[in-house]
Amino acid sequence: xxxxxxxxxxxxxxxxxxxxxxxxxxxxxxxxxxxxxxxxxxxxxxxxxxxxxxxxxxxxxxxxxxxxxxxxxxxxxxxxxxxxxxxxxxxxxxxxxxxxxxxxxxxxxxxxxxxxxxxxxxxxxxxxxxxxxxxxxxxxxxxxxxxxxxxxxxxxxxxxxxxxxxxxxxxxxxxxxxxxxxxxxxxxxxxxxxxxxxxxxxxxxxxxxxxxxxxxxxxxxxxxxxxxxxxxxxxxxxxxxxxxxxxxxxxxxxxxxxxxxxxxxxxxxxxxxxxxxxxxxxxxxxxxxxxxxxxxxxxxxxxxxxxxxxxxxxxxxxxxxxxxxxxxxxxxxxxxxxxxxxxxxxxxxxxxxxxxxxxxxxxxxxxxxxxxxxxxxxxxxxxxxxxxxxxxxxxxxxxxxxxxxxxxxxxxxxxxxxxxxxxxxxxxxxxxxxxxxxxxxxxxxxxxxxxxxxxxxxxxxxxxxxxxxxx
Length: 471
Ligand SMILES: Nc1ncnc2c1ncn2[C@@H]1O[C@H](COP(=O)(O)OP(=O)(O)OP(=O)(O)O)[C@@H](O)[C@H]1O
Ligand SMILES: [Mg+2]
Hints:
The protein is of the alpha/beta class. It is built from 18 helices and 20 strands. Helix 4 (89-103) crosses helix 6 (146-152), helix 5 (117-129) packs across helix 11 and helix 9 (201-209) runs parallel beside helix 10.
């Protein structure tokens, strides 16, 4: 087990010595006793639903090396193992994150945007891992605890660090990017997500632009030239002293898409990146994935990584579960494909997913099927934003539409009658209808916000039919 933190480093970061000496140096950091691994430091965080302090005993049973707890709770918990008693455990985790950053020689990139953060983070992880030891955020750990936790987990040996940073409200990104002090910041795209908290697309752009506040002097901002609010973001980046790098289709873009050809399970891409022509295979289909890849290449180059190694690593990248991953099912009259987009949805990612469906080729008797659930957090215009997608359904040559949820009802009603297959209030009431409809050669794309529970629908389809990988 390699040491992540010594007792002396932890004592310095927390400003408190442990109640008993640690048996061994700490090898990881955890805030969840269920996934904690032996040797981890357990930080007891009080969340909305759970209080980590109630799980300290279990953390030690699972082999925690030590725990960080609030001073009031320390007295009773000291019997279980060595404790660092602090005023505020979240604050302590932030201090550990700051200490990790301070001791690090890694080149750091942060990723934000309305959609595609995790996708780009994983692309950068794949690219940079080909160039040197790379540390990246787990899952979508992108908020007030996710970012400090990710930093606190960064080994001193890391050459590259990749952090996802997200927000629901203005002011949330600023402290996180200041903790990360990145050498490059990438904004994927701006779309009306969380608009109910922010009010306008300009306000969303301004909240994302906080990402530049933490950029190190001489650092870079990689921005999508073709996305809404580009000018506003670029202005903010320059105001904070960042060097703007543009990706997109424009002739003067620093990373410019020249040609993209859809191939089985991905794309073959030719691009011009900082004066160099690159040809590479991207292991995820969709033009939005190509945009993400171009941004990631720029950011990686800004960190000093080798562009050729980064580009060839993209062949090994594949979309995550719920973000465009595909699997095949066996229906009574042959195989059909499910595109699982159930993790998340907003108008931007819904349109991208419908384009993916348009580009997919059904078998001889197969059809394009859209199984759509509500896109949440869209504010007062939510219904209209759903209905507007009817045009995209037609443009994508969707044959059948299945809808779940009250907002999607507006889309269902706006869709051509010939397309309407079934609608239900809740996703679980739709599973039987979809399963009955599926035939050999079909391609079904399932998408909705996480809260509209399209994921369980995908899982139910997977269970119902024998399935294989790929497709
Ligand atoms: N550039 C893009 N434009 C439109 N849609 C995209 C783009 N990149 C990814 N997507 C789609 O958006 C969805 C969410 O992707 P991803 O998980 O990467 O986003 P995220 O920003 O990390 O989301 P979260 O805020 O939940 O962490 C997926 O369906 C993905 O295919
Ligand atoms: Mg994410």
